[in-house]
Amino acid sequence: MNPVPLPTRVFLACGVTDMRKGFDGLAVLVQQVLSENPHSGALFAFRGKRGHLVKLLWFDGQGLCLFSKRLDRGRFVWPVTATGTVTLTPAQLSMLLEGIDWRRPERTFVPTLAG
Question: Is residue 109 in a domain?
Fold first, then answer.
C-alpha cells in the first residue's frame, strides 16, 4: 500500500543522509541542499549510509509526514552521484520501496506474436 496519493513528484536526495534526522532536520535539508519547498506536496526520499534504511518526507496539506522503511536483507538502489536530486515517477518509487532496481526493470514476458 502506498501512503501517498498519486500522482505526486518524487525527489531522491543523492548521497548519504544522517538517519538520526527527523521532521525538522530533513525539511531543512530539502530547503538548503535540494533547493525545494518541503511544503510543496512533493515527496522527498533520503537514504542512510548502509543503504538498508530509507525515510520519506511529505507534506499532506496539514503537516509533515515522515515514513521510514528498513530492509531486512539487501539495500535500496540509489543513484551513484554524491550530490543533487533525481526525480522518480510514482511507479519507480514503488519499485524502489520493494527493493527492486528501478533504473532497469526487467519484464518477465515479451510477446513475440500479435495474435
Answer: no
